[in-house]
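Sequence dictates fold. Below is an illustrative record:

_____
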Amino acid sequence: MISPDAPPYKGGVSGLVGLLRNGLENSGHHVTLVHPKFRIKELKFSGIPFRQYSNSYDLIHLHGPTPFLSDLTLLIHCKRPIIYTHHAEVCWISRRISKLYTQFHRFLAKKAQAIIVHSYDYKSLFNGTNVTVIHMPCSFKSPKKFNVEQKSNPFTVLFVGQFRPFKGVDILLRAASMLLDVNFVLVGDGYLKPKFSRIAEGSANVKFLGKVSDDTLKKLYKQAHVVCLPSVNTTEAYGLVLIEGALYGCVPVASNLIGVRENVSRLRGCLFKPGSYHSLAEKIRMLSSKKELWLNFASKSRKAAHDYVSMYPVGYYVRRHEEIFAKVCSQEWA
C-alpha cells in the first residue's frame, strides 16, 4: 500500500489507510504500508516509485493523487496489478497547472486495473467501467442517549482539521470577525497555525486548541452547534469530520465543492459559496439566530449520520476492498 500519508500523521487519507491496513491484517492479509518520510509544507519527497518489490506481493494499492509519487508509480510498476484510490482533485500551484495536471493524472489512472473513489461525484470524473464507489467509514460510533436539545449557549462553531492552505481557515476567521456573539473553536495543527493565530489575535470569540484526543474531541462535538469545513478548493473531497460532528448534533456547514456537497447533502447540512466569508457568515447567522431552525437541522443531521455509520462501518470498507483485490488478482494476473 503506497500512500501520501500514514499514521501517526493526522489527516483524512492517513486515517483511512490506517483503518484499511489494520482491517486487512486482522483478516489475515499481509500488508506493507509505505509513505514519504520527508515533507516541506505541501511538498513530499520520496524514492518510493523507484523501489523494486518482491514477487511475494500480489498487488499494489496506490492512494493519491500526490504529484510525482502517484504518477511515477503508475508509469513504472506495470508488471503488477495496481488498484488506485483517487482521494481528491489536487489544486497545485495555479488553477491552469492544476487543470493540466488533473487531466494528465486521470489519463495515467486508467492504467490501474481498478479505480476506487469515495463519492458518485468523483466517479463521474472517470469515464470507464472499472470505477467503484466505496463510502468512507467513520471510526466514531453513534453516541447513545444523547439529546441535541441539551446543548447550551453560547452558539459555537467547531473546526477540526489541518492548518493548510486549502482548508480555508482564513475564511472562517473572517466570518468570525462578523459574528462576535458566536464562539469559534479551532482544533488541529499545521505549519500555517502561527499565521492564523496572529490573524485572530485579540478576537475574544476565537479559540485555538491544537491537537486533542478523541475523547476530548467527542466532548467538543457535544458542545458545538455547527461543525464547519470552510475549504477553498477540491483538495478537500469529502469531509469525515462532518459525519463525526453530525453524530453529536452538530449541523454540517461546508463549502460547495465536488464530493463535499454529496456528503453534506446526505447529512442534511448547509452549503456556502467556496471562498466567501460573507456566504459562510450568512449561513452561521441564520442557524444561530433561529433556535428552532438550528434544532431542526441538527436533529436531521444526527439521524442521517447515524444511518451512515450503521450502513458503512469499517468492516464494510475492508470487505469491499477485499472483493476488488480478489477480482483483480483472479483475472489475467492470476
